[in-house]
Amino acid sequence: MKKYTTLFSITSIFVAVPIVCWLIKFHDFDLSSNSEKWADFGSFIGGTISPILAFVSFIAVMVTIKLQKDKNDLEKELIDSQGYCANAVKCLERAYGFLSDNGAATVPVKDRLVWLTTARLILQSKELASAISPKAVSSLAMYESEREYWSHRFYNLIDYTGTKSFSMDKDYFAKASRIPGDEIEERSIKVIYEFALSFDGENDPIDRVSVYSRDELDRFNVGQKGLKEYLELKIIRREERSKQ
Asked: Mind listing the pLDDT tens digit for each residue in 157-186?
C-alpha cells in the first residue's frame, strides 16, 4: 500500500507540472469559444500527460507483478519450512527410537551401529532445521519446542549424573558387542551427548523468568501458606548472599 501511495504522489506531481506551466503561461487569456484552440489544448495535454500516464501504468503493472511474486515466494517458503520442520522432528523421533529400542530400553542400546544411526539422525535434524526460513515463525517455534522435548528424553535416557549410570562402565563403550574391537564410535558419542545435555545447557528460556518478590508473596492465597513460607526462605537466602 505504501508503494502505491508513493507512486500516486509522484504521478500527480508529473501530471500537474505541464498543467501548471500552461496556466502560468496563459492565465491572462479568457476561455476561448474557438474549437481549434481547445483542440490545441487537448493535443498539448495529451502529448505531455499521456506518455507519463503510460509509463506510470507500466511501472504499476511491474510493481503488481513483483508484489505477487513476493507473495508466492513467501507462501512457498512457509510451506517448505513446514516440511523441513516436520522432517526435522521426525528425525529426532527416529533417533530416540533407535537408541531406546522404541522406548523399551531404560539405558541406551549397546550397539555401535545404533549409536552411529542415532547421531546421523540428530545431525540430519539440525541440518533440516537450519533450512527453516526466519519468516516461518510458527515452524521455528514448533521445532524449538520439539527439540527441547526430545533433548529432555535423551537427557533422561543417558542419565549421566547417576552413580549407576551406564556411563560409569568403560566396557559399555569399549566392548559394544562380542566382536573384538567393536566399540562405540567416538563422534557419535559426542553428537548424542551434546544434544542430550543441551536440555541442561545455556540459553534456557526459564532463565528469563524473574524469581518471586515479597510483593508477589503478599498476594498469595491463605491456602498457599506452606508454599509462601518456602519462598520466603528463598528470598531471605538471596538477600543474604547479595550482602556478602
From this structure: 988 676 678 888 888 888 877 777 789 999
Which residues are CB-neighbours of 20 under 8 A, at least 6 positions away? none
What the block records as the C-alpha cell of 175 is: 566392548
CB count within 10 Å of CB 220 equals: 13
pLDDT in tens, 76-126: 999 999 999 999 999 999 999 999 999 999 889 999 999 999 999 999 999
147-180 residues labelled b (16+ CB within 10 A) or e (exposed): beebbebbbebbeeeeeeebbeeeebbebbeeee
Q: For residues 236 and 204, what is the distance between their CA atoms, to the nearest angstrom?
A: 25
How many CB atoms within 10 Å of residue 99? Answer: 26
In angstroms, the CA 207 to CA 126 distance is 24
Q: Whole-angstrom Cα distance, residue 228 to residue 219?
A: 10
Helical pair 112-130 and 137-158, crossing angle rounded to 10 deg:
160
Q: Are 217 and 231 in contact (CB under 8 A)?
A: yes
Nearby residues of 197 by Cβ (< 8 Å), 6 or more positions away:
155, 160
Cα–Cα–Cα angle for 239, 241, 244, rounded to 5 degrees: 115
The answer to whether the beta carbons of residues 96 and 153 sit under 8 Å apart is yes
Q: Quickly list H helices, the chain.
A: 2-26, 35-99, 112-130, 137-158, 170-174, 186-197, 214-218, 225-243
What is the sign of the dihedral through the CA atoms of 210, 215, 217 and 219? negative
